[in-house]
Amino acid sequence: MSSELRDEISNKSDRLGLEEYRHSTAHVLADAVKQLFPGTKLGIGPAIKNGFYYDFDQESRFSDSDFVAIEKRMREIIAKDLPFERSVVSREEARRIFEAQGESYKLELLSKVPDDEEVVLYRHGDFVDLCRGPHVESTGRLGVFKLTSVAGAYWLGDEHNPMLQRIYGAAFTDERELEEHLRLVEEAKKRDHRILGRQLDLFSIDEEAGAGLVYWHPNGAMLKHIIEDFWLKEHLKRGYELLSTPHIAKSSLWHASGHYSYYKENMYILPVGNEEYVLKPMNCPMHLQVYRSRVRSYRELPIRYAELGTVYRRERSGTLHGMFRVRGFTQDDAHIFCTPEQVEAEVGSVVDLALHMLKVFGFEQLGIDLSLMDRGKRQDYIGDPEVWDRSEAILRKVLQAKSLDFREMLGEAAFYGPKIDFQLVDIYGHKQQGATIQLDFNLPKRLDLDYIGSDGSEQHVVLIHRTILGALERFVAALIESCGGAFPLWLSPKQIAVLPITDTQHEFASKVRDDLLDAGFRVLLDDRNEKLGFKIREHTKLPYLLIIGKREQAEGSVSVRRRFEGQIGAMKLDEFISMAREEAQKRVIFTEGDRR
RNA sequence: GCCGGCGUAGCUCAGUGGUAGAGCAGCUGAUUCGUAAUCAGCAGGUCGUAGGUUCAACCCCUAUCGCCGGCUCCA
User: Fold this and answer.
1) CA at A195, C1' at B20: how many angstroms apart?
2) Which of A55, A333, A421, A526 is catalytic?
């Protein structure tokens, strides 16, 4: 056996071992809760990333103040070292057991076990659960865990079902790993874009003025502008054309597009006199208007229309989350109109563009989903199933041709077509929806989007909806968290701070500032009457600090301090400018110090 | 939208059925300083909002808005 193969197998077995460990800990949690809160009914209790959860149905409400008692009881169960015993029973036997305990949810699960599968129970002590397993040998093997939170969760994830109480826990086989995990969670809180957004004065959301509506402050607006500028250049290079379209349109447009029937609950609808307008939740109908403004020839195709289009969606209140989930946001949207023959190549180049652009921002690790129609819910989609089959096959083929790893997600498609979704994965493994590429044979048919083919006949165009960054708000939030607010030089709203030591150097310092501004840098002069150490501390997240004291003034130089690295020495301003200019032009993401 | 928790100064937080507190930030003054917090003084809140209970509510109750953790949804 090759050593690689052996490693792979042992990694896999470690992973399985950890899953068993976590899932077994969930059983102990359920046992403890049932002991402490008689009458509690069980939902499900799987292992998840970093730990486990278990769902409970119980009149009284759990709160984290109950955790102390529950954890104590769990540790008692663990101390008894009760063996986990597997048994295969008949359906009747299982039904009898769960009926006796009033475990209605378990009975529901039991009824869903396929006929050709055996019914497996796991016991430890007096606790019994319907469960495929496997488990660790006995409760004594467990012990490194911590209950972390309690939250509501719908039974079987369906909002029409009753809501159960879910208790989450973290669990590892090693005490140090648990501590490390808890430390990382704390660390992640400090990188939270909502916290950094305020500290760095990037943006705010004012609840009085409207939840989910973002105010970009000067620093944030600058950052957004830099991203948009880069975005535009990349698109113009690739044959996209820029569009600018209205924010509202009469209802009739949205009836025609299908949004009024499939998307109404998310739309802001504005009555104006005896007419009705809709604040746009998507840009596509607007882009289609431009396409339809005259007859199109096959010679013009593909047409690629791009717009940083701001859209408004009435998201349900509980779903809002900083800039990750807002009600007004700017999509880096584009619509590609092409012939059926061009589809594959166009989708392929969009995938390439997405991979390229996201990499420039430091997102090298991506999750890719192929989002498909749920054939069981036809009423949620427009168009013929055969067209859907064809569309889905094209997307699948493109991903396979590029040897990209992807997951197929049933029921995740848009109402008008299947899509490829890219998730940004941050350093903690959290995923955020970024790019999306949606293939649409349906709207062109529905709205008569045609072109004149080479034979003079009218053909339906094929439409590709796509964004690369997703929404600027969400993208910037992910960017803030991925770099912890320490933006790479090319993106940093302020790139350089000039710090005079005493006011004797103010004149020279402002000249340095002006020279840097002339050289095209975004510069801040901190000439406040504060000590140097204080000023350095206040600007630790900036890529470069230039310190100017008596010596530098006399020599006409600057003392350069690089973020996370400290002093890198004094140099002539010109020297610094060419060094920094190169770093910015190359769009260097991490300097040595950043990787620390 | 649903479940739970929480809304006190710009921020982070303490507090109590009987006249609102700290640190940081802010302002004023002093200090002119060499690589992650100089000192002093001043100012700042109808305790999210609206009702109710009470002699008295920041505290108890109800509603509402919002935030946080999840669920559902999603760019």
Assistant:
1) 27
2) A333
A66 in active site: no
Phi first, then psi, for residue A351 (nearest 5°) are -60, -45
Strand B: which bases are under 7 Å from protein Cβ? Answer: 1-5, 11, 30-38, 65-75
* Chosen CATH of A3-182 out of 3.40.630.10, 3.40.50.2000, 3.40.50.300, 3.30.980.10: 3.30.980.10
Q: Tell me: the pLDDT tens digits for A105-122? A: 999 999 888 888 889 999
Q: Residue A500 in contact with residue A494, Cβ under 8 Å?
A: no
Estimate the share of chain A in helix, then strand, then coil, as percent rounded to the nearest 5: 40, 30, 30
Between residue 311 and residue 340 of chain A, the positions with Cβ below 7 Å from nucleic chain B are 313, 315-322, 325-327, 329, 331
**Cα gap A521→A237, rounded to integer Å:** 25
Written out in words, the top-level CATH class of the domain with range A496-595 is: alpha beta
Q: Where are the domains of chain A?
A: 3-182, 194-479, 496-595
- Residue A375: predicted pLDDT: 83
Give the CB-side neighbour count of residue A104, counting CA atoms within 13 A.
Answer: 8
Beta-strand (E) ranges in A340-440? 366-372, 407-410, 419-425, 431-440
Give the pLDDT band (50/70/90) at residue A475: very high
Instruction: Tell me which fold the domain A194-479 belongs to.
Output: BirA Bifunctional Protein; domain 2 (3.30.930)
H or E element at residue A569: strand A566-572
pLDDT of residue A347: 96
Mean pLDDT of A280-295: 95
Instruction: Give catalytic status of residue A585 as yes or no.
Output: no
As for the ipTM of the complex, it is: 0.92
Choosing from A23, A124, A194, A284, the catalytic residue is A284
Give the pLDDT score at A429. 66
- Give the model confidence (pLDDT) of A332-351 as tens digits: 999 999 999 999 999 999 99
Q: Per-residue pLDDT for A11 more than 70?
A: no
From the CA of A286, how many Å to the C1' of B31?
A: 62
- Judged against a pLDDT cut of 70, whether residue A226 lies above it is answered with yes
Q: Residue A573 in 3-state DSSP? A: helix
User: What is the rounded distance in angstroms from the CA atom of residue A442 to the CA atom of residue A280?
Assistant: 20
- Smallest CA-to-CA distance from A286 within A257, A337, A245 is with A245
